[in-house]
Design goal:
Strand content of chain B: under 5%
Largest sheet of chain A: none
Helix content of chain B: 55-70%
Number of strands of chain B: 0
Radius of gyration of chain A: 26 Å
Strand content of chain A: under 5%
Number of helices of chain A: 13
Structural class of chain A: mainly alpha
Order of helices and strands of chain A: HHHHHHHHHHHHH
Number of helices of chain B: 9
Oligomer: heterodimer
Helix content of chain A: over 70%
Distance between the termini of chain B: 29 Å
């Protein structure tokens, strides 16, 4: 490690780091100055801050909160996130398995297994990731909870599945007309109500922010698309977008409006 | 926290006494209405209680608690549809650490607070977590969910911007005096 490497690192906005840098800085007074000026400014900032205030009567208020944490919902909320996520996924898989066993799509035998399970895996993986982030709530690190592209991606993923669905259908098989998208919409949206109920019961935040409600809608939409993928033989893009992919958006809007109304009524 | 997770209710009091003042200070930096700050600290402890089984007892507690607190603070500002505010005057009942300094140093402190408030959120966050909340860089990285080197880069860019913003508009001798005073009591990495 040489001085020039450290200086060029600073010049490019990249703070040199690592054992070699530390060893060099210990021995080199010129380079140490580069690091010390940052530290001096930091110390000046730290000295300008407020002293840590006494919390006053807060402990009594927090104790009251904790004493009120009793009953079935409190127990659900206190389950580990992995348990709550697993329960939500088991619910989604059970609904999908029921469709496959008792109510499967009529073209299931002729539909490409690779495409079928590929789409199912895509939707399930997104559902698992979405449920994890949703149920972690404020435990999510700041950067990832700020990532604005995640929610639109979850909402849009069923549309991608709709684009892939025709690839699995054999010629002459599957429903290529509109085929009643509103029936699918209603069926899919209603089937995922137990998932939403589970989310609401096990959600730890008393007041869920808008992003959380949209995430809940997106997760419900992914689960609905997984279930409908096992049930509906349509490969018509309009049907799939209107009857399947729109469910997540509809739930997100619905939950947002419901939450807004509840807050106004308080 | 391990004792609390294991069911020792008395351990909660110890946790509260250790973290409540730190969290109050972190909240008051941007809220400066004591009732609102108290409310967020109260919510943080409630969330800590509900999420206690998620805590990995082999990990440090402080970054975990601050992740919860910072998320709740950000959700609060989003709900209120307003940007964080900065107080340049002390909250009643909360004395600044440099309260005994002269007017030039108090002015230097205010100037620093003003330029810090203008930093981009990601840079300000890491500087505040490191210098104000006394988290080491690996802990800051855990709170923000970035790598340690990314966090150091953000802090460094923040320092560069701070220096540019301070320019000639600050009493450097007074500022240096603040820094030197800190040298005596604090030895922290950059």
């Amino acid at each position: 490690m040489e001085c020039a490497e450290i200086r060029s690192g600073f010049a490019s906005g990249r703070v040199p780091d690592g054992p070699a840098v530390s060893a060099h800085v210990q021995a080199c007074p010129h380079c140490r100055v580069l690091f010390e000026s940052d530290a001096r400014l930091g110390r000046a900032l730290a000295l300008g801050q407020l002293a840590a205030p006494e919390p006053g009567q807060l402990f009594e208020a927090v104790s009251r909160d904790l004493q009120a944490e009793t009953g079935p919902r409190a127990r659900l909320r206190s389950l580990a996130t992995s348990t709550r996520v697993m329960a939500l996924l088991v619910l989604a898989v059970t609904l999908t398995a029921y469709q496959l066993l008792a109510n499967r799509r009529p073209d299931f035998a002729s539909y490409s297994p690779g495409v079928f399970w590929g789409i199912a895996t895509l939707l399930f993986a997104a559902l698992a990731a979405g449920a994890w982030k949703l149920l972690r709530g404020p435990l999510t690190p700041l950067d990832s909870s700020r990532a604005g592209w995640v929610l639109p991606l979850w909402l849009a993923l069923p549309a991608l599945a709709a684009l892939l669905a025709p690839l699995g259908a054999q010629a002459g098989e599957g429903v290529t007309g509109w085929g009643g998208p509103f029936a699918c919409f209603g069926y899919g949206a209603a089937l995922v109500i137990p998932l939403l109920l589970w989310w609401w019961l096990s959600e730890r935040r008393d007041s869920v922010p808008l992003a959380g409600l949209v995430a809940a809608g997106a997760v419900a939409g992914l689960a609905a698309n997984l279930v409908l993928h096992a049930h509906c033989p349509s490969v018509h893009l309009g049907h799939l977008l209107l009857g399947h992919a729109s469910i997540g958006v509809a739930w997100a809007v619905g939950l947002g409006l419901l939450s807004g109304r509840l807050q106004r009524s308080r | 926290m391990g004792a609390y997770v294991a069911g020792d209710a008395a351990a909660f009091r110890v946790l509260f006494e250790r973290y409540a003042p730190l969290l109050m200070r972190a909240m008051l930096r941007e809220l400066y209405v004591r009732e609102e700050a108290s409310d967020l600290v109260q919510q943080t402890f409630l969330q800590l209680h509900r999420a206690r089984l998620d805590f990995d007892v082999t990990q440090k507690l402080k970054p975990w608690v601050f992740t919860i607190a910072m998320n709740l603070k950000r959700e609060y500002f989003r709900r209120k549809k307003r940007r964080p505010e900065r107080s340049l005057d002390a909250e009643p009942g909360v004395e600044p650490a440099v309260g005994t300094l002269g007017a030039d140093r108090v002015e230097a402190r205010r100037t620093l607070a003003r330029v810090l408030a203008d930093l981009p959120a990601d840079q300000r966050e890491v500087i505040e977590l490191h210098w104000f909340d006394e988290l080491e860089f690996p802990e800051v990285a855990q709170v923000v969910g970035a790598s340690v080197s990314a966090v150091k880069v953000r802090a460094h860019r923040g320092y560069v911007r701070l220096r540019q913003a301070l320019g000639d508009g600050v009493d450097w001798p007074a500022l240096e005096a603040l820094g030197e005073r800190g040298n005596q009591g604090k030895a922290r990495s950059i």
